[in-house]
Amino acid sequence: MTLLLITPYTKFMEYAKKTDLILPEYGRNIQQMVHHAMTIENREERNRCARTIVNIMGNLFPYLRDVNDFKHKLWDHLAIMSDFKLDIDYPYEVFKKENLYTKPERIPYKVSRIKYMHYGRTLEQMIDKAAVLPDGGEKQQLTQLIANQMKKCFLIWNKDNVSNEKILKDLAELSDGRLNLTEESIHLSETKDILHPGKQRNGHQNSNNRKQNNHKRK
Q1: Residue 155 CA to its chain's centroid (Å)
Q2: Quick one: pLDDT band at residue 39, thresholds 50, 70, 90?
Q3: Residues 18, 28: Cα–Cα separation, whole Å
Q4: Domains in the chain: how many in total?
């Protein structure tokens, strides 16, 4: 007589052979409840069973109860777990089976070429805006901000060094010559101040502290 040993591994293999879960996050017990509800012949009793199942499903995720349309999503999930075969009076218009696997509409995306990737599209758009402004303080201030941001972007991309001449040359190119500036007409931050802004602040602070200490000694 052969003794059949039931090991935890054997139980696991028996469990694994069961039908796949449609929505694994709810577990096999909920899936079995849905299957049971589908076998109930009386419609009122079937409706009551479905409401009970949905309440249990909601109890599994109590932190989502304040989420908009949470109840609606639970009824959608109930329909999905029944393969849309559970004939009950749904309190909401549930998801349609034909819409379950449809692809979302393609989002239009602007595919215009970016001339310099390290500057990005936003800076190119800002340059276009600045180029059409009338000459004056506002245009000068915006152009200076853009040029400093260009220098920062360049240094992030290439942590070495970049001359102000290169930045202004790129600015003129990206603006189609509308923002053609010289180093004397605009102030650009120093490379060390862009790469190590904390050191600059600490240096000023330490210098001030030394001045205060010297003043106290006097």
Answers
A1: 26
A2: very high
A3: 9
A4: 2
